[in-house]
Amino acid sequence: MRDLGGALVRYALAALFVVAALFPLAWLAVAGFKAKTEVVATPFQFFPEVWRWDNYARMVSDEAFLRSLGVTFAGASLFAALTLVINALGAYAFARLEFAFKRTLWIIVIGTMFIPGIAIMLTSFIVVTQLGLLDSLAVLVIPGAASGLQVFFLRQFFLSVPAALEEAAQLDGAGPWRVFRHIFIPLSKGAFVVVAATSFLLFWNSYVWPVLTITDPALFPVQQYLATFRSERTTEAGLLMAGSTLAALPVVVLFLIFQRHIIRGVRLSGLK
Q: What is the pTM of this model?
C-alpha cells in the first residue's frame, strides 16, 4: 500500500511538472488565435471568444517574417557547426595532449565561464565595429563561437574515452589528428548533439546582441523582427503571439528529434 501511495505521489508531481512546463507554450499558441485586445484583457481568459485564424495566416504570408526565419535558421546552423568544431578541437587538446602552459591556459578557459556576457558586450561591440563586421551574418555567428562551458563539457566526455583505444591507435602509427578523427569523433556523437543543439538554441533566442549589431531589416533574426511588434505595432498582440508560436516551433521540433541523444550525451559526459 505504501508503494502504491508513493507511486501516486510521484505520478502526481510528474503531471504537475508537465502541466507547469507546457502551460506557457499552450497559452502562447492559443493567444495567437485571439483578437488584439483579448490577449491582455482582464479578467484572464485562456481560450478566445472567437477563434481567429487570420493572425497565423498573416504571419505565414509575411515575407519579412519568413525572411527572418530563414536568416535565423542559416545563422543558427552555421553557429552550431562553428561552435562544435572550435570547442571540440580545444577540448581534445586539453583532454589528451600535453603542451606548455596547459594548466594556466585551462584556468583561463574555465575563468571565462564566470564572466557575464553583458560585462564584455561593449568591448565586443567595439571590436566588431573596428573589424567592419556590423550588419553582416558574420557578426552574429563568429563572436561567442568559442565557449569555455562547451570546452569543459566536451573535455569531460573525452576524458571518459578509454586510453587503451588511443594507445592502440598510436602503436599503429596514428598521430593526434588521426586519433581525433577516427576514435574520438565516432564515439562523441551524443556529446556533439548536445553542443550543437544548445548552440542552435542559443543563437535562435538571441536578442540583445543582434539589436546592437544589426540595423538592416533584411538581416533581422526572428527575435529582433518580433520585437518590432512591441514597438511599431504595440496593439498587434495577437500577431505577436502567433509569430512567437511559429518561431518556437523549429526549436521544439529540434528537441523532440534529438532529445534521446541529448539526454544520453549529458549522461555519458558525467555531468548531472
A: 0.86
